[in-house]
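Dear H.,

Thanks for agreeing to be a second pair of eyes. The structure we're designing against is below in token form, covering all 211 positions.
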């Protein structure tokens, strides 16, 4: 089942909560279970049949884009589940804008990019063995690579008091699925502009949340 790392992550997170609250495993289960679940899901640990709760600021915002399905970026599911994609797809350069009725203090942006969990873009040999990352290779083995669906370059822009867009973060060469961007700004709108992937024609994103 390949769940060893997931179980270890859950145990370690529960232990951290137990230490902070001066309690034991049962205390975490009885009084802090939902916090444990939300913390794990925020860290991109998949809990089947559970939906992650978006930050209040994300829930109050309006999501717009020239490409459809921008609402999927805050639906609490960060991967395809069954026949539901749960993502947003746009051409490179197509923005997703998150706006508020009035200026808000934005402290964090959480992004989840598409790491090709279903192994559709990896070499056949790697995909069939379900091991996209290996510690070693046979000499004749095909090397793996960053999933083509991963967003490589992107920028984050915020609208200032004069109504102009200003770049607040610009990232090149990203290879991480989960990206947390600490911020400290007041704005009435913030937008994500994916610029390039590692090979896919379109940019596919599962989460863009502000808090």
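And this is the sequence the design step returned. I haven't edited it by hand at all.
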């Amino acid at each position: 089942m390949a769940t060893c790392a997931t179980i270890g992550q859950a145990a370690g997170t529960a232990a951290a909560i137990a230490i902070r609250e001066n309690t034991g495993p049962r205390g975490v289960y009885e009084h802090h279970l939902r916090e444990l679940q939300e913390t794990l899901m925020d860290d991109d640990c998949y809990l089947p049949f559970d939906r992650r709760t978006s930050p209040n600021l994300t829930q109050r915002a309006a999501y717009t884009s020239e490409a459809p399905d921008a609402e999927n970026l805050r639906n609490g599911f960060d991967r395809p589940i069954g026949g539901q994609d749960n993502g947003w797809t746009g051409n490179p350069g197509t923005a997703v804008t998150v706006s508020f009725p009035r200026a808000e203090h934005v402290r964090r942006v959480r992004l989840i990019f598409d790491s090709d969990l279903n192994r559709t873009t990896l070499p056949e040999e790697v995909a069939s063995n379900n091991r996209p990352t290996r510690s070693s290779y046979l000499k004749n083995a095909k090397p793996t690579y960053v999933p083509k669906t991963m967003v490589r370059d992107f920028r984050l822009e915020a609208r200032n008091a004069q109504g102009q867009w200003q770049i607040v973060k610009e990232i090149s060469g990203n290879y991480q699925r989960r990206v947390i961007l600490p911020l400290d700004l007041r704005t009435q709108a913030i937008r994500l502009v994916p610029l390039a992937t590692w090979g896919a024609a379109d940019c596919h994103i599962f989460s863009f949340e502000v808090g």
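Two observations from my side: The chain is about 20% helix and 35% strand. The helical segments are 4-21, 25-31, 33-42, 56-60, 124-129.

Warmly,
E.
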